[in-house]
Write a structure and sequence with these properties.
The chain has 314 residues and is α+β, with helices and mostly antiparallel strands. 61% of the residues lie in helices and 10% in strands. It is elongated.
Length: 314
């Protein structure tokens, strides 16, 4: 029995490779967008307090979410350039997953606060200063348009794509805040403020659930969504010289960095090096698994069913 491990290649299997020119450009774009969004979120919080606009405060909460998402994407590109250590042998990629989960928990508390405030303002409407709210919300709309345009230039990167979607949601929040301010200014109907705050809370709830679900799944060593273990097992089992694939485990350092370990029983006449190369090529090109550990076996598996893999009985 021989164990073969992938130590990385120039195509991107190294977890500590330096960012190329495209990654540096994306990192710069994310950095600028983060500073812009985070800075205006502070302005919007102050404006919401001064104008007593719950919609504006709710939108500020949404911008805090988006600033956190931009910061995580920015940090992910930066962390990817840091080398692994003796205690963090896979590097620092999992930090962004943990940060996303904590961010999701904070967002859940924010949604509960918005719901509480909206309910209380429905029962007892509060006065609102529409003009300050309108000015801040309009500036927010412009800020989000600028950030969205910046992020549009880095749409080849999945982190940048996700950040652009967050900013797009902020555009909707700014429009809701503008609508609330105009309605109060021209009609005096203050209940529109908590009503539109509920709309933003609904948007936040959807985003919060997605963040918690995705990050929690990765923290539980779940299979990243783009990877189908059934298809992966079938593709590997079809490799010439392979008899069966077992103890298959797939998880993700992040959603974009799937990792796999597996045992493979091969025919007596099969060449170990050729089979290993074919298996790694199938994992890398078919499923984006650039880092894998493969244990080749002839005969009975020495581990038995100690730690069953995908599709195996416990």
């Amino acid at each position: 029995m021989k164990r073969a491990e992938d130590h990385g290649d120039e195509a991107g299997s190294s977890f500590a490779s330096s960012p190329d020119g495209g990654e540096r450009r994306n990192q710069a774009v994310l950095g600028r967008a983060f500073v812009l969004i985070a800075g205006f979120a502070v302005v919007e919080i102050i404006g919401g307090i001064i104008s007593n606009s719950l919609t504006l405060l709710a939108d500020a909460g949404h911008m805090v979410l988006d600033a956190a998402a931009l910061g995580l994407a920015w940090g992910a590109l930066w962390l990817s350039s840091r080398p692994a250590t003796a205690r963090l042998t896979y590097g620092h990629h999992r930090v962004q997953v943990l940060a996303a989960f904590l961010n999701g928990l904070a967002l859940a508390l924010l949604v509960l606060w918005i719901l509480k405030e909206a309910f209380e303002r429905f029962l007892e409407p509060q006065a609102m200063a529409p003009l300050p709210a309108l000015i801040v919300a309009t500036i927010g709309l412009i800020v989000n348009l600028i950030a969205y345009r910046w992020l549009g230039h880095g749409n080849d990167n999945i982190n940048v794509q996700a950040a652009a979607l967050h900013v797009l949601g902020d555009l909707l929040g700014s429009l809701a805040a503008i609508t609330a301010a105009l309605t109060v200014h021209f009609t005096g109907w203050t209940r529109v403020d908590p009503l539109l705050a509920l709309v933003i809370a609904a948007i936040l709830t959807r985003g919060t659930w997605r963040v918690l679900k995705a990050s929690g799944h990765l923290l539980l060593q779940g299979v990243p969504n783009p990877v189908s273990t059934d298809e992966l097992r079938a593709a590997l089992a079809a490799t010439p010289g392979v008899i069966d694939v077992h103890h298959l485990h797939v998880w993700g350092l992040t959603a974009e960095r799937p990792v796999a370990t597996l045992h493979v029983r091969i025919a007596d006449e099969a060449d170990r090096q050729s089979v290993t190369a074919a298996l790694k090529k199938a994992l890398r090109e078919g499923f984006g698994v650039a880092h894998s550990t493969i244990q080749l076996e002839r005969g009975e598996c020495p581990d038995g069913a100690t730690l069953p893999g995908v599709g195996e009985p416990r």
